Amino acid sequence: MCNAQQPDPPGQVAEGEKPENEAYLFAHMTHEDYGRLYYTVSLDGLHWNTLNRGKKVFEDYHGHPDIAKGPDNRYYIAGNTSDASPDINIWVSEDLISWKKHSVYTPDLKSTPDYDEALQRIGAPKLFYDEASNQFIMTWHTPHKEGTEEDPERYWASQRTLYVLSKDLISFEGPPKKLFNWEFGTIDVIIRKVEDTYYAILKDETYPTLYWPTGKTIRIARSDALLGPYSLPQDPISPNFREAPALIPSPDGKIWYLYYEQYPGVSYGLSIADNLNGPWYQASGYTFFSDWDKYSLPAKVRHGCMLPISKKEYDTLVQKFGIENNEK
Predict the structure, then answer these.
(1) Sorted alphabetically, which keywords does the UniProt record give (predicted)?
(2) pLDDT tens, 75-102?
């Protein structure tokens, strides 16, 4: 009798070879402590280990953790105390260990062009630094309909992705604007640039039905410019009921690993491609058979962001916080 066995995911480097991407940080919340900041790290982008004995790494932070590296080589993180809070809080760090308050931005949502029906809600602010234009773009989602007892999902379907630009994350240019010109719900948008193309990786926030089979999946839209127009999103990369995409390049720099959460806090999925236009396939995980699972994360991690870091930064984080081996 032969047991089935998958090949290992591509993108790893041979023993003794120097990786292009030496290590990774996953800044995330947990199921028990939603909205707070925890760290998990990896050397291969596939197997992740907890820092700080599973405790928070920064007491003041609240939000959906998202970190971007600025032109000054400092790290910036955006958050908010709740979706109903009018403020977006931004902190800055030299080393990913000590964070200090950088600024507070309070968008006038009602001044968003063609969106004066916006509700006072700010969901999951996220950051991307665009080297080509030397500015940050900060995105979040804001709905324009309240849910009802008969149709609670209309609140989520009404989410639209808004953005604002800034050179320094202290002063911001004009009122918020819509990022996409499509009329369906989007949340959890992260923007990445590869060569000359911008990619908006997003969650399709329409409820899945026979008539909208892409609902609650991770999809990708493309543009030649930071602010679009963006193409209609491609076919789903994930199954339904997935959110909070997190994208990292593989250690050899040739492959993309795209993680997403199966909510509410059940497990993480991983899709793999050699370019962001696809095709993508889903790696095996959470089967609890070590010879079958091709990636692993600590139990009960919830969404946040993943980013490459240097081996020196990895070693500093491990020295500061301590590390736990989550492999079983």
Answers:
(1) Hydrolase
(2) 999 999 999 999 999 999 999 999 999 9
| Number of independent structural domains in the chain | 1
pTM more than 0.85 = yes
Distance in angstroms (rounded) separating the CA atoms of residues 295 and 48: 8
Report residue 79 as tokens: 């958050």
Find the CATH number of the domain harbouring 297: 2.120.10
Measured CA to CA, the distance from residue 281 to residue 235 in angstroms comes to 12
Count the residues in the chain: 328
End-to-end CA, the chain: 26
| Amino acid at site 102 | H
Instruction: Determine the Cα–Cα distance for residues 155 and 205; give it in Å rounded to an integer.
Output: 10
Q: Is residue 16 part of a domain?
A: no
- 5 lies in a domain? no
Instruction: Report the candidate in 73, 58, 53 with the shortest Cα–Cα distance to residue 27.
Output: 58
Q: List Cα–Cα distances, 170 to 173, 177, 238, in angstroms.
A: 10, 18, 36
274-321 confidence digits (pLDDT tens): 999 999 999 999 887 878 899 999 988 999 999 999 999 999 999 999
Residue ranges making up the domain that contains 269: 23-324
Q: Report yes or no on 9 lying in a domain.
A: no
222 vs 132, 192, 253, CA distance in Å? 16, 10, 21
What is the Cα–Cα distance from 172 to 174, expressed in whole angstroms? 6
Residue 32 CB-density burial (10 A; 0-12 exposed, 13-18 middle, 19+ buried):
exposed
User: Is the confidence at residue 5, as pLDDT, over 80?
Assistant: no
In-domain check, residue 257: yes
